Automatic annotation (TrEMBL):
Domain GHMP kinase C-terminal: 212-286
Family of the protein in this entry: Belongs to the GHMP kinase family. IspE subfamily.
Pathway: Isoprenoid biosynthesis; isopentenyl diphosphate biosynthesis via DXP pathway; isopentenyl diphosphate from 1-deoxy-D-xylulose 5-phosphate: step 3/6
Superkingdom of the source species: Bacteria
EC numbers on record: 2.7.1.148
Gene Ontology biological process terms from the UniProt entry: isopentenyl diphosphate biosynthetic process, methylerythritol 4-phosphate pathway; terpenoid biosynthetic process
GHMP kinase N-terminal domain mapped to chain residues: 75-153
Protein name: 4-diphosphocytidyl-2-C-methyl-D-erythritol kinase
Enzyme class, spelled out: transferase
One MF annotation (Gene Ontology) recorded for this entry: 4-(cytidine 5'-diphospho)-2-C-methyl-D-erythritol kinase activity
Catalytic reactions on record: 4-CDP-2-C-methyl-D-erythritol + ATP = 4-CDP-2-C-methyl-D-erythritol 2-phosphate + ADP + H(+)
Active site: 18, 145
Keywords carried by this UniProt record: ATP-binding, Isoprene biosynthesis, Kinase, Nucleotide-binding, Transferase
Length: 310
């Protein structure tokens, strides 16, 4: 790594995972994406992404999921950093280090989160001074849910998910995520959703006003029945064991359960932290999920944190 005196200090950004409280899938567009109406919530499962000035573009991944994340130019965080450099005529390569704890390929936007973090980190490292709106525009070029990981909180997404609008949400919600190791690719789940729909005419998705009212109460009992995901049937059709996992979580006392994004992670909403601990223990004991983690939302989007001292 370069150690020239004038190099700016490395920048570390912490970024959350997301869960979709509602994911309504509309018609397939000509560009291969589907029109969505979704409500995202950021939860406190985090990755930390550090960028440091370097002689060449480079990437390393550390943490429990390190061995399943590419470190070449397919890495979304590297793509994000290079996109921002190209767009702003920056000629200073960086070494991107991802401390990964968001489940990989789980429907929790882990790769998108790293891309969002890299944009925010490089903006600071290169002193670009971009606004959140400008960063969200670059984010949209990298993936449908990357802009939300910059914004965080609870927000509505339309278009292919990248057009954000604020949502008034009170309180904090306790979640338990059952992370399974059965692979599910996002494009395959959307394709299965289309297949199951056959020739049915699919209306433009409209946000559910009862979900919006529920979020204003701050009461998980009111929110739980409003959780929904149009990709859930498709995910269960491809991986039937996800249906049993949902049933187990409900039998063990969850208030509501939903496949997260395109899966295979299943998100359970519970009453409070004690209920989260109980459900985590019960689901872990079944062995039906590779890992069970509790989390709280909403939390902030990608933000700079003090340098790690490891
Ligand atoms: O933009 P993102 O990386 O999330 O998209 C991954 C894939 O998911 C797309 O290539 C597409 O197959 C599918 N997708 C979709 N409609 C959306 C978002 C994603 O069909 N609105």
């Amino acid at each position: 790594m370069t150690s020239a005196h004038s190099d700016p200090a490395p920048v570390t950004v912490r970024v959350p995972a997301k869960v979709n409280l509602e994911l309504l899938v509309g018609p397939l567009r000509d560009d291969g994406f589907h029109t969505l109406s979704t409500v995202y919530q950021a939860v406190n499962l985090h990755d930390d992404v550090t960028v440091a000035v370097n002689d060449e573009w480079a990437c390393s991944v550390v943490g429990p999921y390190a061995d399943v994340v590419p470190t070449d130019s397919n890495n979304l965080a590297v793509r994000a950093a290079r996109l921002l450099a190209d767009e702003t005529a920056i000629d200073t390569p960086v070494h991107v280090t991802i401390n990964k704890s968001i489940p990989v390929a789980g429907g929790m936007a882990g790769g998108s989160a790293d891309a969002a973090a890299a944009l925010v980190a490089c903006d600071r490292l290169w002193s670009l001074g971009l606004t959140t709106e400008e960063l969200e525009e670059y984010a949209a070029e990298l993936g449908s849910d990357v802009p939300f990981l910059i914004r965080g909180g609870t927000a509505m997404g339309s278009g292919r998910g990248e057009r954000l609008a604020p949502v008034l949400a009170r309180g904090s919600y306790h979640w338990v995520f059952a992370i399974s190791d059965i692979g599910l690719s996002t494009p395959d789940v959307y394709a299965e959703c289309d297949r199951l729909r056959g020739k049915a005419v699919v209306p433009e998705p409209r946000p559910n006003s009862e979900l919006m009212s529920a979020l204003r109460t701050g009461d998980p009992h009111v929110l739980a029945p409003q959780l929904s995901n149009d990709l859930q049937d498709a995910a269960i059709s491809l991986r039937p064991e996800l249906g049993s996992l949902l049933e187990s979580g409900m039998e063990f006392g969850a208030l509501g359960g939903v496949v997260s994004g395109s899966g295979p992670t299943v998100a359970f909403l519970v009453e409070d932290v004690e209920a989260a601990i109980d459900l985590t223990v019960a689901l872990t004991a079944t062995g039906a999920a590779r890992e069970v983690r509790k989390a709280v939302g909403p939390v902030h989007g990608a933000h700079v944190i003090p340098a790690r001292v490891d």
